[in-house]
Design a protein that fits this description.
Layout (H helix, E strand, L loop, with lengths): L2 H33 L4 H6 L5 H11 L5 H13 L14 H36 L4 H15 L2 H15 L23 H8 L2 H38 L2 H8 L4 H13 L1 H17 L1 H6 L5 H10 L3 H29 L6
Helix pairs in contact: 1-15, 5-6, 5-9, 5-12, 5-15, 6-9, 7-9, 8-9, 9-11, 9-12, 10-11, 12-15, 14-15
Length: 341
């Protein structure tokens, strides 16, 4: 079987398996929510609400049915692309909740990933190109420290120092409350500012992104630093690199044109999966920085036992991760002809 045919067969198989993976994710979330202690009626109405009101609410939500009956209703709704209505957002459809909060998560993930790649790849390349020097030692320590530091702890420490004590950065919002955000086109404040030519709003939006994105990006950069340093060091010992040196090619040219490209192939895989994880699981980051994104909204929904919102957001995140992994396989196959599926 030719390479292109094998790749087409692989992608088709993955696409056919995608619905099964999404149903599995949805089923696990459904069962875990029902196994979690707590009653949605108590969370919504309060523990002191009359019992009759709680019973009526449980019937309205379908919680009086058997677990199997609730599950079948849930799968039936998913087949019709109906994620239900939020219990804690005045009956707002879950799709609308996702549309409202997801842009903030995308913006946070994109700029955090940009910081992570620039810092991680830069430090890793510098450490690999100068083995045994102070740069190599710094690269090793940088990778270990950034990979080991807990995000929530580092986030709280930086907020305490840079925001509370020094007052350099704002907290808990994407834009000043006393100013109007840029005209909404995509929901991404930075992009909307560019599209409308509002450069003042662009500067403000970037300013509010600095602290959470730099914190998350630097802590994630340790992953890329380690991968780039190890792969680039191995690549620089390859035969074709030695042959290039023997031909008298400058070391910088060898590093950039010959070794660096091949060393970046594993980074693309990690980059795609990390970005998908950021989009689908930036809960800790958003809660730590009170960032008004979908991850923070998911945390609130879990706390309030808002079953439809939690299930809908998790299914949405599952869709992102499944299709992001397929896209990564396609990019890897395009970049590296040696890859076979």
């Amino acid at each position: 079987m030719s390479r292109s045919k094998a790749l087409q067969y692989y992608i088709l198989t993955r696409l056919l398996l995608a619905p099964l993976m999404l149903v599995t994710i949805a089923s696990i979330v459904f069962l875990l929510l029902r196994a979690t202690p707590g009653d949605p009626a108590d969370a919504i109405l309060g523990t002191r609400a009359p019992e009759a009101a709680k019973i009526a609410l449980r019937e309205q939500l379908g919680l009086t049915k058997s677990l199997w009956g609730q599950y079948l209703d849930y799968l039936g709704s998913l087949l019709h692309f109906d994620l239900g209505s939020s219990l804690t957002s005045r009956g707002l459809p879950v799709w609308d909740v996702i549309q409202q909060y997801f842009p903030a998560t995308v913006e946070l993930a994109f700029f955090s990933m940009l910081v992570a790649v620039l810092v991680g790849v830069g430090v890793g390349a510098l450490a690999a190109s100068k083995p045994g020097t102070i740069f190599d030692i710094f690269g090793r320590l940088f990778g270990i420290i950034t990979y080991s530091l807990p995000l929530f702890w580092m986030g709280m420490v930086l907020q305490l120092i840079l925001s509370v004590q020094l007052g350099w950065f704002p907290l808990g919002t994407r834009f000043p409350i006393n100013l109007s955000p840029p005209q909404s086109i995509t929901g991404l404040y930075t992009l909307d500012s560019l599209l409308t030519g509002n450069f003042e709003s662009l500067g403000i939006s970037l300013y509010y992104l600095v602290l959470p994105c730099v914190t998350l990006g630097v802590l994630l950069s340790g992953i890329f630093e380690r991968i780039v340093r190890v792969n680039l060091r191995q690549t620089l010992k390859a035969d074709y690199v030695e042959a290039a040196r023997a031909r008298g090619i400058a070391e910088n040219t060898i590093l950039i044109s010959h070794a660096f490209k091949n060393a970046l192939i594993p980074v693309i895989t990690v980059l795609g999966l990390t970005f998908a994880a950021l989009l689908g699981g930036a809960v800790l980051t958003e809660v730590t920085f009170s960032w008004p994104g979908l991850g923070n909204r998911l945390y609130e929904a879990i706390s309030l036992r808002d079953y439809p919102t939690v299930q809908g957001i998790m299914v949405f995140f599952g869709i992102i991760v499944v299709f992001a992994s397929i896209a990564i396989d396609l990019i890897n196959a395009y970049i590296d002809p040696r890859i076979r599926y």
